[in-house]
Write a structure and sequence with these properties.
The N and C termini lie far apart (78 Å). Helices cover 69% and strands 3% of the residues. β1 (104-105) and β2 (111-112) form a beta hairpin. α3 runs antiparallel to α4 (92-101). The protein is rod-shaped. A two-stranded antiparallel ribbon has the order 1-2. It is mainly alpha-helical and 117 residues long. It has helices at residues 2-14, 20-70, 80-86, 92-101; strands at residues 104-105, 111-112. It is built from 4 helices and 2 strands.
Length: 117
């Protein structure tokens, strides 16, 4: 029994482990990398969001242009998003998104997004 205990002690002594200093160094490096990369990630997220909005506005404008080729722009004065949906140019989720974001269609058939305050 005593012999087994001494063998186990030797096994544990021979294994290397991280020291406290090494652990602190690793945590410091990870924190430094986070400080460097997090602002960039947020900037990229904002850039991607603005690109999505621009693409959606272009899609809506294309659908309005298609609608106005067959119909008068004046038809879009009252509930334009529902009319575009009924013409099967928008689906329900696109209609909801246009309403929620506050897109408007002017008298010339141009799609506009209100400026953010």
């Amino acid at each position: 029994m005593l012999k087994n205990l001494s063998i186990k002690k030797e096994l544990f002594k021979s294994k290397k482990a991280f020291t406290l200093l090494e652990m602190v160094a690793v945590i410091f490096i990870i924190a430094l990398l986070l400080i460097i990369f997090l602002p960039n990630i947020n900037a990229q997220r904002n850039h991607a969001s603005s690109r999505v909005d621009a693409a959606f506005e272009k899609t809506i404008q294309t659908q309005v242009d298609i609608y106005t080729e067959d119909n008068d722009v004046a038809n879009l004065k009252v509930d334009p998003w529902q009319k575009l949906k009924e013409a099967q140019l928008l689906n329900e989720s696109q209609r909801k998104q246009a309403v929620e974001k506050g897109y408007t269609i002017d008298a010339n058939g141009q799609v506009n997004l209100p400026k953010k305050e």
